[in-house]
Fold this protein.
Amino acid sequence: MKNTFLCIFFTFFLNINLAFGDDSADWLKEEIDKILISYQNVDLPNENRFLMIEQTINNNFAGTGIAKFVAGEAWNKASKDTKKEYVKNFKRHLALNIASMMQGYSNQKYQLSESKIDKKNKIILIDMEIFSETGSLVVTWRVKKSKDRFFVIDLIVADISLVVTKRSEFNSMLKNVDYNLSKFNEILFNQNNESYQKIIN
């Protein structure tokens, strides 16, 4: 499931200019094209490609909100400094996951089916269908506008949320440290370092 989410992240944006001309689509295209262009340049070091992804995550994902939700009950028991360190670790974790999947990136085809506004929750919902050799998959992107900026807040595949999936994954690890976010930071930091070395080499 994780691999599917991350693969979709990049296949969606390859031809976003075919979608709709609203500000949110323009924003998404501009940001993601930077990453796609970097992966088309075979002479660009892996470290530079990763930094492009990390910058995109830091600038365009609702990182603090997502990280807080994923941490669950551990968030409320943590200090301000611990929370700040955790958000930093979480964003890098997400960037490293995406960078890992980008190593096998290919140009899949898709068709946008619907774009609508959820007025109650004040978010933009973008539906699309992605085609592969084995069939197709319907995906919904959730984008929120805040202070004249757009942020990705979630991705839904087959009624399964990327954010909820991450929360379940992290909860298993947090349980092992009695939901101590400070101890969990050490684990996540070390995992990030190991993943980073694999990405850049």
In short: Residues 114 and 199 are 35 Å apart (CA to CA).
